[in-house]
Amino acid sequence: MGVSATGKSSVARRLAELHECDFIEGDDLHPRANVAKMEAGDPLTDEDRWPWLARVAQTMREQADAGRSSVVTCSALKRAYRDRLREDVADVWFLHLHAPAAVLEDRMSRRTRHFMPVSLLASQLATLEPLAPAEHGRVVDVTPPLDDVVAAASRALAELLNESPGA
């Protein structure tokens, strides 16, 4: 989870490979209208996000029902969004990928072929509700190089797995 340009896709893909899980790109589950809205520089509203979150949750549920572990990217900026994801799959852990706004702005300005413009970063940061102490998750700094971030994320995931009931 996290705002745009934190490297959710890159980190998640590598974690999925490392831990032999399926990788699911949450952005691919957005309705076309959401993508068009973001491409136009308009922030999504809660009403825009609920159907998308339902699709993400459904995909996670299908994976769990099939006995498959997965690493799923999803901004999950608000606690209510994360609660919605937990409705379908109770045993969800969140890795909140975080970096200073200046780092994220720089990354966003250099990337190509992505629908999220730099102009929407401020609205995402304003919407972001960090993980609460009662939420099952960890914060991972994504300022270092990708290999270091993946190693830190993998350690955080191992900690979460060890804390999980039945682990």
Automatic annotation (TrEMBL):
Pfam families for this protein: AAA_33
Keyword Kinase carried by entry: yes
Annotated pathway: Carbohydrate acid metabolism
Gene: gntK
Family assignment from sequence similarity: Belongs to the gluconokinase GntK/GntV family.
Keywords: ATP-binding, Gluconate utilization, Kinase, Nucleotide-binding, Transferase
Stated name of the protein: Gluconokinase
Gene source species: Nocardioides dokdonensis FR1436
Entry's EC annotation: 2.7.1.12
Record-level GO cellular component terms: cytoplasm
